[in-house]
Design a protein that fits this description.
The complex is a heterodimer of chains A (about 170) and B (about 475).
Chain A: H1 2-10, H2 21-41, E1 45-51, H3 57-64, E2 77-79, E3 88-92, E4 95-96, H4 97-109, E5 115-119, H5 121-125, E6 135-137, E7 147-149, H6 156-169
Parallel strand pairs in A: 1-2, 1-3, 3-5, 5-7
Antiparallel strand pairs in A: 4-6
Helix pairs in contact in A: 2-6
Chain B: E1 18-20, H1 23-34, E2 38-46, E3 49-56, E4 61-67, E5 72-74, H2 82-94, E6 97-99, E7 132-136, E8 148-154, E9 157-164, H3 172-176, H4 181-189, H5 196-211, H6 217-245, H7 249-270, E10 279-280, E11 283-284, H8 292-316, H9 318-324, H10 332-338, H11 342-346, H12 354-357, H13 378-401, E12 416-424, E13 429-437, E14 442-448, H14 455-461, H15 470-477, H16 482-485
Parallel strand pairs in B: 1-4, 5-6
Antiparallel strand pairs in B: 2-3, 3-4, 7-8, 8-9, 10-11, 12-13, 13-14
Classes of the chains: A alpha/beta (about 170), B alpha+beta (about 475).
The complex binds iron/sulfur cluster.
Chain lengths: ~170, ~475
């Protein structure tokens, strides 16, 4: 373990401007995100994720926000374990009938001011699952949505961009 | 009474041939399920027919159907525990009654109306002094899928875990019935997002079996490339996640970096980080992007450096193994009874891997070893994933070094027919069955996730453990919710 830890000490952090145009875009985005978050929230935004019926694809990419490349926490965004601690509900999937109540209750348990971000094609209107017998519909039909991040699933970069957009659009 | 499937079908029958049998013969199958001569592979309904897919010890496969009379069919659940939740699901989805079934509680159907109010659910009664219950979910603390766990504990010790699933039930089979093939393939790719390649592959192979399509060699190889990348990326995610649940976040950090590098390379090669919709009936939807070679070389160098280092990190950290060794033991007898596949089965000594045991191209012409461990604890499931990750990397190298040239996709004729396939995903074997209507649409499709036969084992493995070990144990299974809930 010591060898690995030592190596991490002497190698540069991964959260850097990489050589590809791709990574540059990410770095630029990260800069904007940082400024916006600082202005709006001081330094902290608590996110609670609710899977309301997703295929789990969206969750994988939300997970990726926490890896060393994206390192969401450097912006002060962090995932919390309870809606009671959250400022933002990140909701994925079409809302299934079986999850509708749980989503409503999570929303009710989130203190004001709060924002809801619907993640992925399914969250908009049920996406490919619209019309399914177990599907109630998009997230917006159940709780008020402030922002929708499209994609199937949206890659981490799109998720970061979406959170930035949320910060810029908020006047509450 | 014969114990081989080959005796029940005409000689030279194709794989997954299907026979309609009488209710009496059906009950004969129940006996052979109970004795362990046959392993249950799938159990679903297409009213008025109820189907069961089986595999015997010699590796033969077959599907049997019985016709429901007055909406009833003889239950297999009395004889076969893995059949029970599947029969509850058949009842939920089709209304057919499994006659004589030991458990008739709804499973995927929570009885919710438009507004979401639920019918009450009867958890199994628990008796005993000083017991208390802990209800967890459906919304969990992490970034994970929803499900409900009802623990009964005596102090710290778990006396019983009862799962309740179905929260992400969308009605996949209903959406697939009548859908054009292309939409069916997109739905299959989204049955379970972490296994999108494996599901697409299972669906595509079932369609190809139904209409006799031969997939071009380049497409066969590219499919395997995608499948192995998916396995490698997910095993890394699991290893990191398990260690993190034992409060060892260093492993997660490094696994997540390697996983991210793999997904980025996949995006470069196939245009999508998870390679969704890359596998389609008839072949693949895209070729390798030319710019990928340098990235691939870099990636393999990193994998070769990191995988042994991460394994050494696991080996050298006694405090981590203190949590994983002898935690959450799955007995071989249970793994066998339930036909549990994937790392859960193989870490408990059940040596089944669909790539080798119900072989399909290109694996049928590639020699490779299927790692099997005996101890069945969290530690064994971690070690097994390490070995499989290494093996996937080795398979990838071989596949990429010898990619055949040629077309990417064969035409899929609009033909009537039925077909099945069993494909090894990172979690275990995924079964797919389709009936094609003849006008380019699906008449019916069924997808069976490996988790059906793993979830019940988690209930058994956690008995006697302490509540604090549940997240660790659960993560070492990493069962699917979406794939299971349909
Ligand atoms: S948007 Fe795509 S990845 Fe996300 S839940 Fe829907 S199907 Fe899955």
């Amino acid at each position: 373990m010591r060898k690995l830890l030592f190596k991490s000490l002497v190698t540069l952090p991964l959260t850097e401007r990489g050589p590809d145009a791709d990574d540059e875009a990410l770095a630029a985005l990260a800069g904007r995100l940082d400024a916006a978050v600082r202005k709006r929230l001081g330094r902290s935004l608590a996110i609670r994720m609710v899977d309301a019926g997703s295929c789990n694809g969206c969750e994988l990419e939300i997970h990726a926000l926490n890896n060393a490349f994206h390192d969401l926490e450097r912006f002060g965004f962090h995932f919390v374990a309870s809606p009671r601690h959250a400022d933002v509900l990140l909701v994925t999937g079409p809302v299934t009938r079986n999850m509708r109540e749980a989503l409503e209750r999570s929303y009710a348990a989130t203190p004001d001011p709060k924002w809801v971000v619907a993640v992925g094609a399914c969250a908009l209107d049920g996406g490919i699952f619209a019309g399914g017998k177990g599907v109630a519909g998009g997230v917006g039909g159940v709780v008020p949505v402030d922002l929708h991040i499209p994609g199937c699933p949206p890659p981490p970069k799109a998720l970061l961009g979406g959170l930035l957009a949320l910060m810029q659009q908020q006047t509450r | 009474m014969t114990t081989t499937l080959a005796d029940l079908f005409p000689p030279q029958s194709r794989r997954w041939a299907r026979r309609v049998i009488s209710a009496e013969q059906w009950l004969g199958l129940a006996d052979r399920l109970e004795s362990g001569a046959f392993t249950l592979v799938a159990h679903w309904a297409e009213p008025p027919l109820v189907h069961v897919a089986l595999r015997d010890a010699a590796g033969s496969t077959g599907i049997f159907s019985v016709e429901a009379v007055d909406g009833r069919f003889p239950s297999l659940g009395g004889a076969s525990r893995p059949a029970r939740r599947l029969e509850r699901t058949i009842r939920d989805l089709t209304g057919l009654e499994p006659e004589g079934a030991p458990d008739l509680r709804p499973w995927l159907d929570h009885g919710r109306d438009e507004r979401g109010a639920a019918r009450p659910y009867a958890f199994l009664p628990v008796d005993g002094e000083g017991l208390h219950q802990i209800a967890v979910g459906p919304v969990h603390a992490g970034i994970i899928e929803p499900g409900h766990f009802r623990f009964t504990a005596a102090g710290e010790t778990i006396v019983r875990l009862e799962q309740r699933l179905g929260y992400v039930h969308k009605g996949l089979e209903g959406l697939m019935a009548g859908a054009p093939l292309e939409r069916g393939a997109r739905l299959a790719a989204r049955a379970c997002g972490d296994s999108t390649v494996a599901y697409s592959l299972a669906f595509a192979q079932a369609v190809e079996a139904a209409c006799g399509v031969v997939v071009p060699p380049r497409a066969v190889a590219l499919r395997a490339v995608m499948a192995e990348f998916e396995r490698l990326a997910n095993h890394l995610g699991d290893i990191g996640g398990i260690c993190n649940d034992a409060a060892f976040s260093l492993m997660l950090t490094h696994c997540a970096i390697l996983r991210e590098r793999i997904l980025r390379t996949c995006a470069l090669l196939f245009g999508h980080r998870l390679m969704m919709d890359g596998v389609v009936p008839g072949g693949v939807s895209c070729d390798l992007a030319g710019a990928g070679e340098a990235a691939l070389a870099r990636l393999f160098k990193r994998i070769d450096n990191m995988l042994p280092a991460l394994f050494a990190l696991y080996e050298d950290t006694a405090s981590l193994q203190d949590r994983t060794v002898r935690t959450g033991i799955v007995l071989y007898s249970l793994a066998k009874e339930f036909g549990a596949g994937g790392p859960v089965g193989r870490a408990s000594g059940r040596p089944f891997d669909a790539r080798r045991d119900v072989p399909y191209a290109p694996y049928d012409s590639m020699a490779f070893e299927v790692p099997v461990l005996e101890r069945g604890d969290v530690d064994a499931r971690v070690r097994l994933r390490f070995r499989e990750a290494e093996q996937s990397a080795a398979l990838l190298r071989r596949l990429l070094a010898a990619l055949p040239a040629g077309p990417l996709r064969a035409e899929v004729p609009a033909r009537e027919g039925e077909g099945a396939a069993l494909v090894e995903g990172f979690r275990g074997d995924i079964f797919a069955w389709v009936r094609l209507a003849g006008d380019g649409r699906l008449a019916h499709a069924h997808l069976r996730d490996p988790s059906w036969f793993q979830w019940p084992l988690l209930e058994a493995a956690i008995e006697g453990a302490i509540v604090a070990d549940f997240p660790l144990c659960n993560k070492s299974f990493n069962c699917a919710y979406a794939g299971h809930d349909l």
